[in-house]
Design a protein that fits this description.
Elements (H helix, E strand, L loop, with lengths): L9 E7 L13 E2 L2 E2 H12 L4 E6 L2 H9 L19 H16 L5 E5 L8 H14 L11
Parallel strand pairs: 1-4, 1-5
Antiparallel strand pairs: 2-3
Helix pairs in contact: 1-4
Length: 146
């Protein structure tokens, strides 16, 4: 498998804001007996595709669940990135900047991992990273036909 033998550092960032209006606490709600966020954490960790998997959240409960299942919780998301309409890009920039400035960590590639995608499987992450590397693309997005 290519990702086990490569020196590339790939960071997975789970973006899990705590203030959902539609379903309060949705990231930690149980789905088939497990908190929703646990599915993405387990799949990302099991994939072996990431040098590191972290969570960017303002929700202590989500942070505890993610941390208990192998995800790093290096920081809590700052107040200015907690709004309903905060796009992913500033959240990702904050995460990368924080890791660089506080831990000297700079990945070669980064992937946004959504806690509301419980059907993601470890192979999906490996395939996305392999596609990015083999195609020379600077980004890859996963979609599904309806």
């Amino acid at each position: 498998m290519w990702f086990r033998n490569t020196p590339l550092k790939v960071l997975g960032v789970i973006t899990a804001r705590g203030g959902s209006k539609g379903i309060p606490g949705k990231n930690t709600k149980l789905l088939a007996g497990k908190p929703l966020i646990q599915y993405i954490v387990e799949a990302a960790v099991a994939s072996g595709a990431f040098d590191r998997v972290i969570i960017s959240t303002d929700d202590l409960h989500a942070a505890r669940i993610a941390g208990a299942h192998g995800c790093d919780v290096p920081f809590m998301r700052p107040p200015e990135l907690r709004a309903d309409d905060t796009p992913h890009l500033p959240v990702m920039i904050h995460a990368l900047t924080w890791l660089r400035d506080h831990q000297g960590y700079q990945p070669d590639s980064v992937m946004t991992l959504l806690p509301t995608a419980p059907l993601c499987q470890p192979a999906h992450f490996r395939e996305a990273i392999a596609l990015e590397q083999s195609s020379g693309a600077d980004s890859v997005i996963g979609v599904d036909e309806l």
